[in-house]
Amino acid sequence: MITHFAAPYPDNEIPRAQRVTELCYLDTVQDEVLDRIVTLAAESFGVPISLISILEEQQQWFLAKVGIAVSSTPRDISFCGHTILVDEFLEVPNALLDPRFRHNVLVTGEPEIRYYAGVPLRTPDGLALGSLCIIDRQPREPLSARQRATLHQLGELVVYRLHELRTTSFIDRPTGLMNRIRLEDDIHRHLSAGEEPLLIAVDFLSPLFLNDIVKALGYSFPQHLVKEIGRRLSALIGQDCVLYRIGLTRFAFIKPFGECLSTLFSMLSAAFAMPVIHDGIPIRTQMGMGALQLDKASLNGRDWVRLAVSAADNARDLGIGWSVYQGELDVAQQRAFRLLSSLSSALEDREQLNLVFQPRINFETGTCCAVEALLRWTHPALGPIGPAEFVPLAEKTELIRLLSLWVVEAAIRQAKQWRENGHHFKVAINISPSDLEGPAFTDKLVEFLERFQLEGSALEIEFTEGALIKNLAEVRLQLKRLRALGIDISIDDFGTGYSNWTYLKELPATSVKLDRSLIKDIQNQEKDRRLVTTLIDLAQRLGYKVVAEGIENQANFNTVKAWGCSEGQGFFIAPPLTGQELMQWLAQDGAAQRFALDENIKDL
Ligand code: C2E
Ligand code: CA
Ligand code: CA
């Protein structure tokens, strides 16, 4: 039995094998220096065969060889597997007399080994990669001490050369950073280990601009500039994160999945807002960052680096700063993904979110009785995003909780300020049904009211009745708590939603808001007219005040007023306004009671 004599695996096999993958490109290394070392060994010892053998898990590979045709054999029949277990030297003067090797197929068959002498190829930290050996087809006398020393020195030379090869093939000379080959290797290692981290590529200059720089300042200028960029970038991404240089002005690094890309991008762009200076010449970088998640399902099938780079280029070209490569997603999904992944940083950035306020007037007095707080998001790269787009996205995640709390705090702060300045209209806040599926939101709202010393009657909650409500009993409980604080409760989008009359009756609401889609065509659609009048009648019978929204013209204003709605809102009265614009509007249209004038109803 051959396997009976197979060399056991050393105790440090795992780190040993890892070092082999790091140092020896088994299928690619073809190096003249290593070739010369084996030739020299064969000649100086007068043997037909000499090998540099590297041990992988199952195989031994010959990185360099003379006198033998095959380039690998199974590990369990290798002599080399025994050599790595010894400290300095393994010698077999006659294999036929050695019980470990007597029946080995390399002895009984080709290449009919009789004599073997090998030294382990040990790295400075003591891991044996394989061996350098000499082989004869005849038995031989043992080597002299001097000959042993020579073989040992040749072995050291091999290890030295392997380190040197690794350095030249993995290091980017100008910057001293790891290069693209190394990155690809590391990506492969992550995927083989079943990990799926994020690959992030950052480009700092557009090719056109780079061209101009080279033309004006010579090729060495960007090389130096890039060293400075590399230094800044290394410091930013952290000590435990390896930075790779993957192109003239391109870099890459790997972060665990879950890293907040928009925070990362903000940090990088803040650090590169200052020009990079070389030779006293400041250059402003134009950064683009691209990211993608490695996917172990396609271990070998993808050019990951190229995809990340194209996402980075794309981001720079579109002026959106950063983007995520999402090959399988369509454009709408990519936008949704992008919005969601930048929403959490928007919540921390005072510049991005704000509230605007749309006045609502009381038909009887013509004055502003409430304003509806509507959320606005100015995305740093994509510009203004409407709540109709991002609120439903946020509702699919836990982010809606933070978003609702942001709105409540901002609205209460603003309401308090208006109260102090003598204004008495209410501030209406839109909330998502899911906010009421537990006590947390209401608790927080109470906390804000206390903190800002505002009474509940200064607020109104606009609540959309919908099939979305999962736990009606809990929602009703929370609405009751809010109502008990003096907060008005309005059922938003009335007439379009779920309209389960049984539960509608049980909600502690104070008013309903007729949806703007119902109001739009009341001048010419008889069906809509009948629907709206019926809804008004019904709501009033249930004891609710009726508010009409989406009033866009004089005719609709007059009609809903005549039909008995008590309050109205819409572009005809005022669009959503900033806090400051609202104050101006109040001073002019609002205070002049323009909306109470009789002429408003003349054309009924
Ligand atoms: P909504 O509650 O029905 O809000 C009224 C929407 O109608 C606002 O759009 C407003 O700008 C628009 N509007 C007002 N008057 C007119 C008009 O005369 N004609 C027309 N065609 N439209 C008018 P906006 O601001 O885009 O809000 C869209 C929706 O986003 C809101 O619908 C609301 O459901 C949601 N939303 C807005 N802010 C928040 C928020 O802070 N939290 C939550 N959960 N949802 C919000
Ligand atoms: Ca609303
Ligand atoms: Ca509405």
What's the structural blueprint in terms of helices and strands?
Blueprint: H1 13-23, H2 32-45, E1 49-55, E2 59-66, E3 72-74, H3 80-83, E4 90-92, H4 105-108, E5 115-122, E6 128-136, H5 145-170, E7 178-179, H6 180-192, E8 198-203, H7 207-217, H8 220-237, E9 244-245, E10 250-255, H9 261-271, E11 276-278, E12 281-283, E13 288-293, H10 304-318, E14 322-324, H11 331-348, E15 353-362, E16 368-379, E17 383-385, H12 387-395, H13 399-420, E18 426-431, H14 440-452, E19 459-464, H15 472-484, E20 488-494, H16 501-506, E21 511-514, H17 516-519, H18 526-541, E22 545-548, H19 554-562, E23 567-568, H20 579-590
The structure holds ligand C2E and calcium ion (CA) (2 copies).
Explain this structure.
The protein has 604 residues and is α/β, with parallel strands linked by helices. The protein has three domains: 13-170, 2-Layer Sandwich (Beta-Lactamase); 178-325, 2-Layer Sandwich (Alpha-Beta Plaits); 342-603, TIM Barrel (Alpha-Beta Barrel), CATH 3.20.20. Helix content is 41%, strand content 20%. It is built from 20 helices and 23 strands. The strands form four sheets. The protein has an eight-stranded mixed beta barrel with strand order 15-16-18-19-20-21-22-23, surrounded by six helices. Strand 19, helix 15 (472-484) and strand 20 form a beta-alpha-beta unit. Helix 2 runs antiparallel to helix 5 and helix 13 packs parallel to helix 14 (440-452). The longest helix has 26 residues, at 145-170. Bound molecules: ligand C2E and calcium ion (2 copies). One calcium ion is lined by residues 372, 430, 462, 492.
